[in-house]
Amino acid sequence: MTPPEQPRAPGPASSDAEALLEQLNPQQRDAVTHGDGPLLVLAGAGSGKTRVITHRLAWLTTARGVHPASIVAVTFTNKAAGEMRERVERLLGVVRPGGWIGTFHALCVRILRRDGSRIGLQSGFNIYDSADQLALLKRILKEETGDAAGGTPRAFLSRISRAKNNLESAEQLARRAFTPDQQLTARLYELYDAALRQANAVDFDDLLLRTLELLREHPDVGLRYAEHCRHLLVDEYQDTNRLQGDVVDLLALDHRNLCVVGDDA
């Protein structure tokens, strides 16, 4: 889908590819002008890693003629995504230059709103915040044990979240549960997940987990998104966990045009 032409933004930014490269040191220039295929950029704090992401996005548009709608850039916070978007707008001299720049979770929301029905998640699904999660687990814990007091529900939520991010199901957690506390955690995980599905809801971990489920169980969906996202750029890659890394790998599986930058520490 081609976005409508946007008005040019004020400021001294230039869309000329050579002008973009003049702002970079030799190492940054090599990364920005990398051709197709995977690219890993490692550098220390304050060395201009995010600059590589933003300039590469602008360079792909101006020098390679890649349509902005075929470029996806992800980072970890809304603030970082906003700053990245502003940098790209200044470089290209356009407001809302197309493409998609946002967080991992926001990207997964977009995918699940459109195709989540393929895994039983309707488009109007609710996203539970930490307060919603806590209230749900307290109710489940009280029904299961008769006690929902103290800080125990938060501890159980933390364990469930850790299991999800390690791609571990409630069933897998139960198989390695030996102590009563571990067994209760697995049982609560099972009931918590069932309650979310019954309510057509997800928590923040599920946004990535259900997206991964969708892409794995329906390769045609993954291929469609890979064809749409011809270049995938990831900032602060050192902070990705296994779940986020697997989502990234599947989105880039078809073309392998994956650029990641991270701190070498």
Explain briefly what this protein structure is.
With 265 residues, this protein is an alpha/beta fold. It is built from 12 helices and 7 strands.
Helical content (DSSP H or I, runs of 4+) = 40-55%
Radius of gyration: 21 Å
Distance between the termini: 40 Å
**Structural class label:** alpha/beta
Biggest sheet character: 5 strands, parallel
Rounded average pLDDT: 87
Q: Count helical runs.
A: 12
Widest β-sheet, arrangement of strands: 1-7-6-2-3
Describe this structure in words.
The protein has helices spanning 17-22, 26-32, 49-62, 78-92, 104-115, 130-145, 152-165, 170-175, 180-198, 204-217, 219-228, 242-251, and strands at 39-43, 71-75, 100-103, 126-127, 201-202, 231-234, 258-263. It is an alpha/beta fold and 265 residues long. The strands form two sheets. A five-stranded parallel sheet has the order 1-7-6-2-3, sandwiched between helices. The chain has a two-stranded parallel ribbon with strand order 4-5. Strand 6, helix 12 (242-251) and strand 7 (258-263) form a beta-alpha-beta unit. The longest helix has 19 residues, at 180-198. The protein is elongated. The relative contact order is 0.16. Mean pLDDT is 87; it is low at 1-15.
